[in-house]
Amino acid sequence: MPETLIQKADTIITMDDGGQVLHGADLLIRDGVVAAVGQGLQTTGDVISGRGCVVTPGLVNTHHHLYQNLTRAVPGAQDALLFGWLQRLYPIWGRFGPDEMFVSAQLGLVELALSGCTLSSDHLYLYPNGSRLEDTIHAAATVGLRFHPTRGAMSIGESDGGLPPDALVEQEEAILNDMIRVVDAFHDPAEGSMCRVGLAPCSPFSVSRGLMRDTAILARDKGVMLHTHLAENDEDVAYSESQFGCRPGQYAEDLGWTGDDVWHAHCVKLDVTEIDLFASSRTGVAHCPCSNCRLGSGIAPVRQMRDAGVPVGLGVDGSASNDAANLIGEARQSMLLQRVQNGADAMSAYEALEMATRGGADILGRPDCGRLAPGKRADIAIWDTTGVSSSGSWDPAALLLAGPTQVKHLFVEGRQIVRGGEITSLDLPQLLQRHNTLARKLMEA
């Protein structure tokens, strides 16, 4: 792989162990990793000007449901709370098949890439009409993003007191067998891996305690990570208390779902005891501020979590509960919500950006990503701060206060995925046409 030199960037925010922020500096990419960061670097390879730009690590998305890109702004779900929102959308999702899963994943990952994301997780928990996890894995390969898909599942349908329709749930033995299959086939634990697989029963209200426990045992046997939804809103907490006789954090602890190999989505309603539990066990949290606002779930206690030592990253959540997938926008929203809740000095632009980069990478078990330092993966976002959105800013590095919401250039493993604000890895107009055709078919069914 040829070298690439990002030359004379106005600012490089490294997110390295020392928190260095460099000005008028260079960054050299070689063989998929950062070879050097500093002044006056040279190359015989390609040179990209960093003048007028801020360079950051690629952003990391810790929670998404990519398949939902085909069901944005659905009437009847636009103003519903979580449970009602799910009940409106489940029948539509039941009409999906492999094509819908593949194309929606492609479009969702393109949207993330344009917002500066280089590594994304995904939580796919329903498999109608022959759909499989690899539909999304193959889609990610066409886009070129680093991917951490999770094999989700639902096993308790309406007839057994669960929320999802019976047609969308699976037998638990079949779920566990398929988890083994996808881990064996697609999980790459190596440093620099482009695909790692996690295991992710959907939520406490859609799977049994037995499946939660068995999945935790399986994940540790296979050396993969665990993920689920937890304490998303008041309904979620009430369900846990009525069905399990305890709060969500205790439920997770009882079933082996705490530790540095676990990350939970949302955690809007964690109390002080649960925050302390997650901090002491190093259990991660995927904070999804826009989705939490969109569904009226509340403001997650991120300031309290971080102060206690809970690892926190950011997620855009599904495109049917956020209706967008802009990760730099998610970082800004996180910063603003913590200020609303705790005061204007509660979270700086730099801290929110740290959660969106290094914080998310650490939650996904990827210390090789999320920072710009020699030997780390060359996942790099370059932001043009000469445009309207940054005009008049006294501190262009404060991207989340005044800065672009789309990336100028994006590198993943040293390969340029976005050039001049355009995706390079596939034909976007063709993808949009195919995506819109599938969406219309779903609307008309």
From TrEMBL:
InterPro entries: Amidohydro-rel, Metal-dep_hydrolase_composite, Metal_Hydrolase, MTA/SAH_deaminase. The keyword Hydrolase applies. The keyword Isomerase does not apply. Residues 54-416 form the Amidohydrolase-related domain. Keywords: Hydrolase. Gene3D superfamilies: Metal-dependent hydrolases (3.20.20.140), Urease, subunit C, domain 1 (2.30.40.10). PANTHER family: AMIDOHYDROLASE-RELATED DOMAIN-CONTAINING PROTEIN (PTHR43794:SF11), AMINOHYDROLASE SSNA-RELATED (PTHR43794). Belongs to the metallo-dependent hydrolases superfamily. ATZ/TRZ family. This is 8-oxoguanine deaminase. It comes from Parasedimentitalea denitrificans.
